[in-house]
Design a protein that fits this description.
This protein is an all-alpha fold. It is built from eleven helices and no strands.
């Protein structure tokens, strides 16, 4: 039951935010009592903190795995990130047009004043970890000869990480998931055209952006 409570709470928090979810909402969906939820988690803040911790471990861990994997091309890392985003997007927007928030961190960040200090610190640490992972990916691309030695890895890593961290906003502002894919493709094309190694025949192919968009 504990895992079921966390599953429902995570989804409802993504959709409605911290203030928009009560123990009554969770209990109604699971057909249990609010007492049952209190037994497992205590006050609401503790449940939200637990859900946030698990989410950060899962999402941060997967992003880190994609971007710090050795021997994987930069374009493949971008494609894997798009696929990861698509999974999360489709889970809460099955037809593609619902416009639902699909990131717990994005949704809770919008209500930062309602969170406690530890929750806010965890969000900051999550973002820092995403940036660090993307920077590592850029550094690996340089070491592998995909990008030139003078590539500004910290700046470009943060640029690519921003696609991931603000993906929910990008999909809303650009008309859906295709807009997010275009955003990733444009960033990759810019990086490869500006800093791609001239000796690497796989860097900056003319059809790179469209290839990502069509996936």
């Amino acid at each position: 039951m504990r895992d079921e409570i966390k599953r429902v709470a995570t989804r409802l928090l993504m959709l409605r935010g911290y203030r928009g979810v009560s123990y009554g909402d969770i209990a109604q969906e699971l057909e249990i009592t609010t007492t049952n939820i209190h037994y497992h988690f205590g006050p609401k803040a503790r449940l939200v903190a637990t859900v946030m911790h698990d989410y950060i471990e899962q999402v941060g861990g997967r992003f880190r795995g994609i971007w710090t994997a050795p021997g994987v091309r930069l374009s493949t890392k971008v494609e894997s990130t798009i696929a990861f985003n698509r999974e999360a997007f489709t889970r809460l927007n099955p037809t593609g047009g619902e416009g639902n928030s699909w990131s717990l961190i994005t949704r809770l960040s919008a209500e930062g004043e309602a969170l406690d200090d530890l929750m806010r610190e965890r969000i900051v640490a999550f973002r820092r970890d995403i940036h660090a992972s993307a920077i590592t990916g850029m550094e690996q691309a340089v070491a592998a000869g995909e990008l030139r030695p003078d590539t500004p890895c910290p700046q470009l890593g943060r640029l690519m990480a921003s696609c991931f961290l603000y993906a929910v906003h990008i999909t809303r502002d650009s008309g859906g998931f295709r807009g997010l894919t275009q955003h990733y493709a444009t960033q990759l094309d810019l990086i490869e055209r500006s800093w791609g190694s001239k000796t690497n025949d796989l860097v900056a192919p003319e059809n790179a952006p469209q290839r990502l968009i069509d996936r």
